[in-house]
Design brief:
CATH class of the largest domain: Mainly Beta
Largest sheet: 6 strands, antiparallel
Oligomer: single chain
CATH topology of the largest domain: Immunoglobulin-like
Distance between the termini: 64 Å
Structural class: mainly beta
Low-confidence stretches: 175-191, 373-377
Order of helices and strands: EEEEEEEEEEEEEEEEEEEEEEEEEHEEEE
Number of helices: 1
CATH architecture of the largest domain: Sandwich
Length: about 450
């Protein structure tokens, strides 16, 4: 046995023995028949074990699940999780009190990220409490929107818990809705791979995690545009026909970020059989799992992952790890179906030179521009921020966002297609004075489950 100094270790009993089958455990020297220390197992020991809880309470945004389990002092297993991903600032959230409230703590998602939650469609996931926090310190687990202080659903944590310590021994396999067994990673990459695809407009970052390729696209795109990246249809030059790409964008109607698997059989709009088509429209499936999305100051960041090798030989190309491979990228408008429309061929919105990537790289960082200093230089200037001062009655109405000079350029965030007008002013700053009474006449929606409406 090697030397240990304040080390946590896990021992598995041999030959199928259980803890109830033994009377003692010792550190024993067989050569000199010396007992270095022992612990006796009391008869009738009640061994700590996972605890099964009810499902999430169903309050908003389609949140639901099967019965949630506490696997150990820090780990929750959430099977069959459904959530529409439409909350603008939603997270797994834990805290104390009789109901979920703003005095909570964010819990990283199943891949260890603190990005706002994506949508889930019947997935089985595990999440772990951050820092020194344990299940003994909290009263509830919820999905909570920080911006709107809105509880989408929660489950209470019993006080009579007796679960195993969190030493990593309870990690289990989780599944997606396609029953593909995956192992979720909780560590962040030590190295960064980044390549500039379109100068000043689109970068790609990547890393390989087990049998998956994790990709993050960072683009200077408008809200109604997409960014696409994938494997060229021919090695040695950029070719759209035969290419396998992912189209990533913000869906304004569903109010969520999306990443869709595409195959290009011809240079035309998809007709359901041929063209630039989502795999799902031509008999395949979307093998891409979106992980996170964000938009700030005109820059959109979307992270997704895909198996290095899927089971769709026709529509999907394998990502090789033994050589460089030619890739293509583009930026263009979305059509009325929220699908990729034709882009320009000027070289500023599509790769015209051969770009090759070795996806097995550990620290291939050639990006020169982080893209996040963008302020709509090529378009009209945003309208100046407006203010309301000294008015005691304020009427709030829902109206349009103001296009390229309105909500998104002013705030740096994607709009949901609607914006508040206060006294007929687009999203003004309202100044109020302590001790005064103000009347708000709100002419908006009354669906409490959909704050955006």
């Amino acid at each position: 046995m090697q030397q240990h100094n304040n080390t946590d270790i896990i021992l598995k009993l041999p030959m199928g023995k259980r803890i109830r089958d033994i009377r003692w455990l010792s550190v024993w020297c067989r050569r000199f028949t010396v007992d270095f220390g022992e612990i006796f197992i009391p008869p009738g020991l009640d061994v700590p074990k996972p605890r099964v809880l009810p499902e999430f309470k169903r309050l908003a945004h389609g949140l639901r699940s099967s019965n949630i389990s506490i696997l150990d002092a820090k780990t929750f297993y959430i099977p069959n999780l459904h959530y529409d991903g439409a909350g603008p600032d939603a997270y797994f959230w834990v805290g104390n009190g009789s109901e979920p409230n703003i005095m909570g703590t964010k819990v990283p998602n199943e891949i260890g990220s603190l990005e706002p939650l994506r949508g889930y469609q019947g997935e089985d996931i595990e999440i772990q409490l951050p820092g020194n926090l344990t299940v003994y310190d909290i009263d509830w687990l919820a999905v909570w929107c920080v911006e709107y202080r809105h509880n989408f659903g929660h489950v209470y944590i019993p006080k009579d818990l007796d679960v195993p310590p969190a030493l990593g021994q309870t990690k289990i396999a989780t599944t997606t809705t396609t029953s593909t067994v995956i192992t979720q990673a909780t560590s962040k990459p030590a190295n960064v791979n980044c390549k500039e695809l379109l100068r000043g407009k689109l970068n790609v970052m990547w890393e390989v995690m087990d049998e998956y390729i994790v990709i993050e696209l960072v683009g200077r795109i408008d809200e109604e545009q997409y960014m696409a990246f994938g494997i060229s249809g021919s090695h040695g030059h950029p070719q759209m026909i035969g290419a396998d790409v992912v189209v990533a964008f913000y869906d304004r109607r569903q109010r969520r970020f999306r990443a869709e698997d595409y195959y290009m059989s011809s240079l035309s709009q998809c007709d359901g059989k041929l063209g630039v088509c989502p795999d799902e429209r031509i008999g395949g499936k979307n093998d891409v799992e979106i992980l996170s999305g964000d938009r700030s100051h005109g820059v959109t960041r979307i992270k997704y992952r895909r198996l290095l090798q899927t089971n769709e030989a026709v529509n999907d190309r394998a990502y090789p790890l033994d050589r460089q491979i030619s890739v293509i990228a583009a930026i263009g408008p979305l059509n009325s179906r929220e699908e990729a429309n034709a882009h320009s061929h000027t070289g500023t919105e599509v790769t015209v030179d051969d770009v090759q990537i070795d996806f097995a790289s550990k620290n291939d960082h050639t990006c020169t521009d982080a893209l996040d200093s963008f302020r709509y230089e090529d378009g009209p200037q945003p309208w100046a921020a407006l203010t309301i001062l000294g008015e005691k009655t304020i009427t709030a109405r829902i109206g349009p966002t103001g296009g390229k000079r309105g909500y998104s350029p002013i705030t740096g965030h994607p709009s949901w297609g609607i914006a508040w007008f206060m006294n007929d002013l687009l999203i003004p700053e309202i100044y109020v004075e302590r001790g005064q009474t103000y009347t708000f006449v709100v002419e908006g929606g009354d669906d409490t489950a959909q704050p955006a409406k």
